[in-house]
Amino acid sequence: MHYAFILLLFTFIEICISEEDVFTEELLIKPLNADNVYTHFHFTTKWNVPDSGFSSHSRIFPRILGEIIERYNVQELHIGLTNGLWRYEKWGYPVVSASPGGEIWTWFKPDTKDVDKNWKELTNSLSGLLCASFNFIDSTNTISPEFSFRPQGIIDNSEKVNSSYLKYSSLPREIVCTENLTPWKKLLPCNAKTGLGSLLNSGYIHNTRYHSLGLHLRRICTDKYCSHTGLELQQTISLVYDSKTLGTRNWSLIKFFGQGILNSCDLAESSTIYIDNKMNSSNPFRLTLKPDEVITSIRGGTVSEFAKYNVGKTIFSVGVDYLTQKEVTINQLPVLYAHQYLSGYGKENGGLVLKITNNHWSELDVVVLQNIPWYLQLYLHTLKITVGDKMLKPIKLKFKPGKLRTRYHHLEILLRIPAKSVATVSLNFDYTFLKWQEYPPDANHGFYIGSAIISCYLPLARDFVGLPQDGSMIRDSFNASRSGYLVQIRTETLIVTLPTPDFSMPYNVICLACTVVALAFGPLHNITTKRFILKVKDDRTLLDKIKAKLGINLKKKED
Amino acid sequence: MNSIFQIPSFIIIFIFSFIIISQCQIETDWAKKDHTNNWAVLVDTSRFWFNYRHIANVLSIYRSVKRLGIPDSQIILMIADDMPCNPRNPRPATVFNNANQHINVYGDDVEVDYRGYEVTVENFVRLLTGRLPPGTPRSKQLLTDEGSNILIYLTGHGGDGFLKFQDSEEIGSQEMADALEQMWQKQRYNEIFFMLDTCQAASMYERFYSPNILAVGSSLVGEDSLSHHVDPAIGVYIIDRYTYYALAFLESVDADSKRNMAEFLKVCPKRDCISTVGVRKDLFKRNPKDVPITDFFGSVRPVEVIEDVVIEPISFISKNISVEETPKIKKYRYVPPLVNFDQFIQ
Q1: Is residue A27 within 8 Å of residue A40, measured between CB atoms?
Q2: What are the transmembrane regions (chain B) (predicted)?
């Protein structure tokens, strides 16, 4: 009787809640050029939950994340774990951009009392959750960018954006491997056993030119008037496959991931695969499977075509067979891209150069964010921004100088780059000496400078596949013309070699010094502490001496 | 006549009493199985590509204990460098312990708790003694109690009385012994099986003085531990001898296995290992022959049957409704994705 009642109760709860969280999975496949194919997994979980109540039951939303964000009062959380560099020049823009290594930024709620403490503990928790070294993040390598980042989700209407609740940090050295993918997969409702997640086999993922795990959590509106809110979790994996490593130009899901989709994820509301048809014009190909639907999307003046497949219960794989020989096409450069490199010479004088190219026919407003470690001493007076021979005056400059061992340098520059030009931002710095215990075990590997972030609200959507702010899924990006399209370009990370001592040298020196001291000490000690006393030379033989002694004695006895 | 009958009856009584005692013995043996959970601390202390074999060592043991039932949440895996996704690895996301590439010990489901620069002597000792900074996630804590059997496995480069960590610092045998004593005093373990695959491994456990520790090392003081073989495709030595044979033994064990620790201690005789495997049993109370290997490499999952549970679900519902009855009306908005430049232009 009791059991029946409980069962009934559970089904009742289930029915009530089943509409509250929704999970969708999508896969976007986009041939980037003749050789590279971009595959982007997009898993979205939306959960209609009020601002204050995580304690309620969630069906799909990972409970562990809910607990973390509730405990640390997190408004928005973005994590990227990336291996490889996204080549903007050749590949256009990704759906989600990420800098090489680990990257994390968080907005805390405005009622957070101690942001630094929460940030430290949050990163600690996340390091445990994702097996990443986020626990190395603390206030010494964190910045609060003022212009580059805005909350991507909603905020309270009565509040202003206050960047002191934003914390950004990157770990350019971070290595991404299966140990990060495993816990990431466990956050998926179907746990990578079925559905699109089952394609994520580590051996095939880490064999790519670029792979990036992402976790993006924000608050969204759930109704038209934005009076009800919900949580949205986007889990993304971006991969770029190279036909050279695959062996063939013709690709399929089986070639990419080692297997097709064997079974659909029952918890997903929809499982969809989109294949971008754009490359079909230059390198014509034939889809091995007839698409369920062909979607034409006009976005920001750019027309693109997608073949759509709904993944069902049956075994599924799709691929592409090229019809002609490879044709090398001239790559149409994206509107905006950037590179970063080191200048300077010797072990003392270093420099950093950032080149931002504007390919657009009109000027572009960009925000440059540099996050430079404290072990480089920056000289702001050497900051030079030039376009060709002319100096370019920044619209606004924010510089928060770093402090040795306590704070990173934080530089933000608002630039208006003229049409069809390259802006060069250069800056000089000195290398500092570290204390010997601050050197990592592999000090000769070098020290990293994180990538610069160039944010721009592009007026046109060429090469752009990102999601609009009000969208959560890839399908929301079709026909989503807006007033602008936000891109955040991450440049290369850099390695500098700080003056590094030869660590066996002190040992040698100690050994040598000790030997010298020991050898020198004895004679010196003797010379300085003992007195020289003159002695009368005694020429008598031993026998004489004895006799003399005895004689004295005898004499004494005779007396 | 009478006396003749008396003798057999005496014998019968004796036999009976013996049987009863021996039965009691069996029962107490069952009750004596006094560890309630199993933990494993698996540490690779060396960095750099040419130390590939140490990571293969530690992952081999990781694979075995996981296979025998210790869950990932109770395995603390410390790996000082990244081999699977190292650019020099010809097959990304794999670590092999055999040139035939039969077993990918890294696997498709691995959780590394401490990695890279986090593998330090300080973190290791803090982990063992439980003196961790606040905010340390559960996966980086050794949450053992007085009923825990712990397997501690260390591999790396050692010397007489020390073990190097990451080529930059080392833990001394006395420090190691003191850390274990602190664990004992804090009731953090029931029994420890301490396993080392380093050069001069025996020097590390010589100083131990805490009870209930069974220690085994791949070599005696003055001896080197040797590696097993090279994989030409990878280009480096891929596993050490002792761990290679230990793994071969463990592969033959499953969760219901009756094999005992005495058999495990005999693994890798001198003709295979070239070094002499050292064993220290004097701190360990039980006879290794009576200790099933799953006492350390497997996992106990105690099941407690709870009766008379009263579930009151009604209050749960009423709470839920009361929350939903008072929704706060608040307005929210999206923020423009990038800062407006015009506000800065005069």
Answers
A1: yes
A2: none
